[in-house]
Amino acid sequence: MKIIDKTPYRQEDGQVTFTDRIQATLKYGLTWYDRIQAQEKILPILDKQLSRNFILLRNITLGGTDVELPLILIGPPGIFLVNVITEKGVYRAKGEEWGLISGDQFAPAKINQILRTSRMGQVLQLFLDRAGLKGTVTVEAILMSANPGTHIESVRPVVRVVMSDALERFAASMEQARGTFSPEMVATLAQIILTGKVANQASPKLAPQEPSQPEKQGAFGFDDAPEPEQTASPSDSFSLTEEPTPAALKQKSKKGKRIAGMSIAQLAILAGILLVWLCIVIIFILYISSQPNG
Predict the structure, then answer these.
(1) Labelling 126: which of 178, 227, 237, 245 has CA 20 to 30 A away?
(2) What are 83-109's pLDDT values in tens digits?
(3) What ranges do the domains of the chain cover?
């Protein structure tokens, strides 16, 4: 399997420095590092089972947009949006519902990972449709758990659910599935996703796929107004911690002033953290100095 890794704040050797981790946390939230580590757990399994005919795009930004998506697996069987979760416990995935199970009680989770995964898949589908591939490529969204301590009761969820103990079977089924795309087509799809440009006339033609599920008319259409809970963020972008919306696929606008890749607000927060750390060090030194010599 070929892996194209665009994970931000990650060194070429795979390490995340202390400074990079602070910057990533400020931008993506406190769970960013845990989600990156969860991805690390499943990558060796997929890489072992899948041939070079598969391409995995990791933490990429859709070409020409500000939309960031976690994992996109492209291979002969099709194209899959994979959201790897870090939650631990017993969960229920029923339709569009997602929540914790404690005894006989069901409590909806603060972040609905089922809907989040579904919307990621829909955003990728709309991106490909706008790239001229409507009716040609169907995206399947997959919710994947990398934690052995997570159990998910699935009752016809709107996305495919794969638990940690089924990762090898999932990868094997991908490798053995009937092929729809040739290696050239797989490479073409990866290029379109990364650049946002439609393949030229010389590129391989893509044969239409049968949709994996009926499309909901008007759902997430670019001309439709989003529902209140799907309103775009002020920057009209979707990150790994936000809900994707049609507005997230707008072309990149001019960014605010950035220094070393960080916004003024992020630099201010980082400066505050460093100032607190410096004060603690100074107080500790003064305390040691004030103690009588033994």
Answers:
(1) 178
(2) 999 889 999 999 999 999 988 889 999
(3) 2-251, 254-294
